[in-house]
């Protein structure tokens, strides 16, 4: 029988765990696992979201109504392993940064509707 190295063992364990968990309830975690996001990439993403959330709150207090620039910044800084829209919807489902993510989903949905009208 083939001996598993640490990476193979970890991958195998994650596969087993994903079978016993309802991954639909954890779409963000599922994206992290499926796209081989490293701990460093995860930490960078969380730091980016914290920074954008702080900017969002400042802009909201100042009376801003359009947060498209924050969404563009998010998409531009996101690792290429992740799709921005899928990531945003997954974050929303798991409840990360609710105000910021709600603003992002509103922009995405508005742009989708606007695109269909053309």
TrEMBL record:
Return the Pfam families for the record: DUF1878 (PF08963)
Where on the tree of life does the source sit, at the highest rank?
Answer: Bacteria
Kindly provide the name given to this protein in its UniProt entry: DUF1878 family protein
Q: What species was this sequence derived from?
A: Virgibacillus natechei
